[in-house]
Amino acid sequence: VPLASATTDREGRYAFKGLLPGAYFLRWTLPEGLVFTNAAEGGNAVPLADIRSAELPPFSLTMGEVPRVVVGSLRPGSLSGVLYLDRNDDGSRPRDEEGLGGVQLTLVQQETGISWQTVTDAQGEWRISPLEPGNYSLRAVLPEGHVFARGMQPEAGPRFAALDHREGESQVFALGFGEDLAGVSVGAVRT
Q1: Pairing between strand 180-190 and 77-85?
Q2: What does the alpha-carbon distance between residue 128 and residue 77 come to, in Å, rounded to a whole number?
């Protein structure tokens, strides 16, 4: 049962007044479309362990103590696209070239090394979300009997370079606050 609740003001400030010494925990509920980030540096900022976490571990207050708890939030980004069979090996996708399903993609955040994995659906489409701003690379391993299209020129997003014809990794690309990078097309050719 909550002891007290507060709503942040326009600057994001909040306060709980009249608390007695004891053990407490804080729980936040963000507006739709936002996720938690790590707390700001400096002061007595308390980092959250997971960007999707909404609860601070229990802490104790002593008489007269006024802790400062800083929590960050942001509108997350996303990355999406299609992996398709490029029949003419030109690196562009007309509407009649079908998607390639069941291909595993791995997205790696360069600053942290954290990775996300997804598998293309039956139409070759995929999406990875929520994503923090940062620098990323995208990896794919094509199924046997397929290689990356020679003329890979993505319609949007990072250039995807074949490493050994079946395994490929994109160049590093930046994703900004709340940026939805859609239409990352990757062509494959049957051998």
Answers
A1: parallel
A2: 9
Dihedral (C-alpha) 49, 50, 54, 55: value to the nearest 10 degrees? -20
Q: How far apart are CA 190 and CA 119, in angstroms?
A: 19
Q: Which residues pair with 37 in a beta bridge?
A: 72
Are 72 and 45 contacting, i.e. CB atoms less than 8 angstroms apart?
Answer: no
| Amino acid in position 12 | G
Question: How many Cβ atoms are within 10 Å of 83's Cβ, its own excluded?
Answer: 28
What secondary structure letter does DSSP report for 55?
A: B
Sign, Cα dihedral of 121, 126, 130, 134: positive
CA distance 172 to 93: 23
DSSP strand pairing (115-119 vs 173-175):
unpaired
DSSP class of 94? -
| pLDDT above 70 (res 135) | yes
Q: Which residues pair with 137 in a beta bridge?
A: 108
Q: pTM of the entire structure?
A: 0.69
10 Å Cβ neighbour count for 48? 18
What are the distances in angstroms from CA 149 to CA 42, 83, 115, 176? 49, 11, 25, 28
Residue 151: CB partners within 8 Å, gap ≥ 6? 86, 89, 90, 91, 92, 187
Write the DSSP symbol of residue 51. Answer: T
Q: Which of 43-47, 65-69, 163-167, 184-188 has the lowest mean pLDDT?
A: 43-47
